[in-house]
Specification:
426 residues; alpha+beta; 4-stranded antiparallel beta sheet; 9 helices
Length: 426
């Protein structure tokens, strides 16, 4: 066995050289997100009023989509580490003839050597993959922020709708009581009391619908940080503070730095790097062999040297190269398509925000005050016997519809603003 100590030592030395040639694993970049905590450690909101800042913090700490993007980004560090790894050498032992006196034993180490820049191409492709994962994480972060803001103000609008519906029920109940008193006094026909009862029933149905919508909105908001049962009592948001964003020209200029567009642009670079990987595989690798050959019959030991070179007669990686080129072309087309789509969505959201702001200001300044004055005048006239209850019902319905329309305009304004934030990544 001592005759084979030399080749085995050579193999150990070559393995050490291979490990020394490989670059060490780098820790993730300080700016990269840390791995997400376990679900059991994720925070839950307190049973108190919820602010927007608190909702954003809860979602950033407990959203599943964001944690999945962070884990994907962390996983790319392993891909880079693997891309830097050198190929393993091989130890081979061959024996000719089983008789001791005529036995010929060959021990050798086979060391593969990559040619054509394969390792550098692999590393570049893995690093481009990390860039794409980081851009996707930032895009997910921006999308989550926009979703939280939109859902938060959706809950605020739903709360206000419940308040309006409850006030409408109270008004309808007072109107029904007043109609009942006037019918009892013989001042109006019983038909007025029936109409008032129908209006009260409709108002109660509207309150039930608004309450159900509020519950759904609350659950949607709490689900953004992984809580299926909302604990907060209500949300505190200033609905009268209309959102505003930059001019359309400035937004279009900021579109190029959008995480969504940046992800598509980096994907093109990653696909080009994969083309370089497949192109490098067209060059065959060589295997260098070194060892010893022991002939017992001649009582001599000889060195063995060899080189193995594959002949690329049939497989030149042409199919994989063609596929990678076409996928790179596809990524370039997707970049153009995403730029057009995001530009269109950004312009539509900007226009919608401008229209919603103008409508909300008009409703608040003119329509709502006029509807409130008309309802108050109709109520006083009905109590004084100047109007019938039909006039009160019409004024009440007009006021309620104006308030609901105002809330709808506010919801569209916040939806347009958060769409802009999601696209530009703010």
């Amino acid at each position: 066995m001592r005759r084979f100590i030399v080749p085995l030592c050579m193999a150990a030395m070559l393995c050490g050289v291979a490990r020394a040639g490989a670059q060490p694993y780098r820790q993730p970049h300080p700016q990269l997100p840390l791995p997400a905590p376990e679900p059991s450690a994720w925070p839950r909101e307190a049973a108190e009023p919820l602010t927007l800042d608190t909702a954003l913090a809860l979602a950033a700490a407990g959203n599943f989509s964001l944690s999945a993007a962070a884990r994907e980004l962390d996983a790319t560090e392993g891909a880079i580490r693997q891309a830097r790894t050198l190929r393993n050498p091989e130890v081979a032992l061959a024996m000719e003839d089983t008789r001791r006196e005529s036995r010929v034993t060959t021990a050798q180490v086979n060391l593969p050597i990559e040619l054509g820049g394969k390792r550098a191409a692999r590393i570049s492709a893995a690093e481009r993959g990390r860039d794409v994962a980081q851009a996707q994480w930032r895009s997910t972060q921006a999308d989550l922020r926009a979703t939280v803001i939109a859902t938060f103000f959706g809950v605020a609008v739903a709360q206000e709708r419940v308040r309006l519906a409850a006030a409408s029920v109270d008004i309808a109940r007072k109107g029904a009581d007043a109609a009942a008193r006037r019918v009892a006094a013989g001042k109006v026909s019983p038909l007025e009391e029936t109409r008032a009862a129908v209006e009260q029933a409709n108002a109660e149905l509207e309150l039930a619908d608004a309450t159900a919508e509020l519950q759904s909105s609350r659950q949607a908001l709490a689900a953004l940080w992984g809580n299926a049962s909302p604990q907060f009592t209500e949300v505190h948001g200033d609905l009268d503070a209309l959102p505003s964003r930059a001019a359309p020209e400035q937004l279009l200029a900021a579109l190029e730095e959008s995480p969504l567009l940046l992800t598509s642009r980096l994907e093109v670079g990653r696909r080009q790097a994969l083309v370089d990987v497949e192109r490098s595989r067209r060059y065959p690798d060589i295997t260098v062999s070194v060892g010893t050959r022991r002939e017992n019959e001649a009582n001599r030991t000889m060195p063995v040297l060899g080189v193995a070179i594959p002949l690329p007669l049939f497989d030149r990686n042409q199919g994989n190269l063609y596929e990678s080129i076409r996928r790179a072309d596809k990524a370039a087309d997707e970049l153009l398509a995403n730029r057009i789509r995001l530009t269109n969505e950004l312009q539509q959201a900007s226009n919608q925000l401008a229209v919603s702001r103008s409508s909300a200001q008009a409703l608040k300044a003119t329509v709502l005050p006029a509807a409130e004055r008309a309802y108050e005048a109709a109520t006083r006239g009905f109590e004084a016997g100047k109007f019938d209850f039909l006039n009160v019902l019409d004024a009440q319905r007009t006021l309620f519809q104006a308030r609901i329309r105002y809330l709808g305009v506010l919801a569209r304004a916040y939806q347009a603003a958060t769409t802009i934030d999601r696209i530009v990544g703010r």
